[in-house]
Every structure is written in C-alpha cells, then in structure tokens.
Amino acid sequence: MKTVFPPPPQPLVAVAGTGARFPVRRIFCIGQNYAAHAREMGTDPTRSEPCFFTKPGDAVVPDGSTLPYPSATSNLHYEIELVAALGSGGANIPVSSALDHVFGYAAGIDLTRRDLQAAAKKAGQPWDMAKGFDRSAPVGIIAPASEVGHPNRGAIRLALNDTPCQRGDLGDMIWSVAEIIARLSQFVELRAGDLIFTGTPEGVGPVKPGDRLAGVIDGVGTINIGIA
Ligand code: MN
C-alpha cells in the first residue's frame, strides 16, 4: 500500500532463545497492584479497583539502553514490574483461559514523572503526560512462557547504582496476571503484541542523570538501563 510518507518503524522487543522479535502493538499498565506500594502512595489497597492506564507502543526501550532524562519533570521515578507479552487476545476473556494468551514475560520499568502524576491526581486530570511519555517503557528480553511457564511467585527487585531499592514478590499482587487480562479485556479488545505492565512493589523513588537501574525478576529475566 502506498503511504504519503514511510510508515513509522514497528516497535520490537527481543525474545530469549531466538533471533525473532516480539512486535509491540499497545502497552497497558495497572496501577497500585501491590498492597505495600498502594500504602506508600497514600491509598487503601483494600478498596482499590484496578486502575488501568496506557503508554504508546513506541515508548518501549530495549534492555541495555541509556536514556536521556525526560523533559518537563524534576522527579522521575522508577517502578520495576513484571510485563506480560500477549501472543493472542480477545474481548471478555475468562480468567480460566487468560494465561493461554500470554506469549511470554519480561522485566520492565514503568518510568513515571511523579511530579506531574501528583499534580494530575490532585486536579482530577489524566495521567497521560505523567506515564505515557517518550521512552517511558524500558522492557527486558521476553522469556517465552513455553520455557518459563507462568510465574505467580518469586522475587522482583530493583537496584539503583548497585544499591537495592525495590523488593517484592510476584505472589503479593492484588490482581493476578490472569485477573488483569480478564478485567482489561472487558474494557478493550486485547491483541497479539500487547504488553501489560502488572504493577510495582514498594520502594519507588527518584532517579537522576548518571544513575543506573538494574532489575531482576526470578525465573523471568533482567532489565538494565542508564539515565544520561
Ligand atoms: Mn506502575
């Protein structure tokens, strides 16, 4: 098909054990999915309905990248998260078959302009510019579920300049990956290529230029980025 200018490049994520890459369609995220993190953000986890938001597909950043410090913030925060990468999708997916749609898993970082998010919350405004900015979604190499299964417990941790800052366990998620997929698919039709950031454990904090972030999710993989 002829286009008036060349189509934008397809965002891609590396997959373990193959040269073939995972083509990204959309990026969905859930907020406050670990009770301890909800508490540190000042909300009551027992009353939290799942809060979904999105990032653009081309916000993905490959493992090992060094990113420029983003514009329009002086409080950029890290959030280490398990990322589910969908190989198929649908609408109104039942919890019982939700994991059949997961191609694989990766460690990701939901970079957040926390100052803008706090202002948006206070004003009752959307989070788009706080969460969905350029290069806001570093994602590590995807481990296929055919190799690693569907991890539902295990350590998830992040270090800032080699000092541990976040630590949690996948078993402490309020909404499981299957429940997130089922719920999200009631709002939007999910498709192959969708990435779902499944929330962060406690210990979020700021990064500054020159910092390095190193995340590990047991049985899944790693994510390493630098801030220029
Ligand atoms: Mn997050």
Q: What is this entry, summarized?
A:
By secondary structure, the chain is an alpha+beta fold. It has six helices and 18 strands.
What number of domains? Answer: 1
What is the CATH topology classification name? Fumarylacetoacetate hydrolase, domain 2
Number of helices: 6
Structural class comes to alpha+beta
What fraction strand?
Answer: 25-35%
Question: Roughly what percent helix?
Answer: 10-25%
Number of strands: 18
The CATH homologous superfamily name equals Fumarylacetoacetase-like, C-terminal domain
Shape descriptor: globular
CATH architecture: Alpha-Beta Complex
Low-confidence stretches: none
Bound molecules: manganese (II) ion
Q: CATH top level?
A: Alpha Beta
Strand order of the largest sheet: 4-3-15-8-9-12
Compressed to H and E, one letter per element, the order equals: EEEHEEEEEHEEHHEEHEEHEEEE
Mean pLDDT: 96
Distance between the termini: 39 Å
Oligomer: single chain
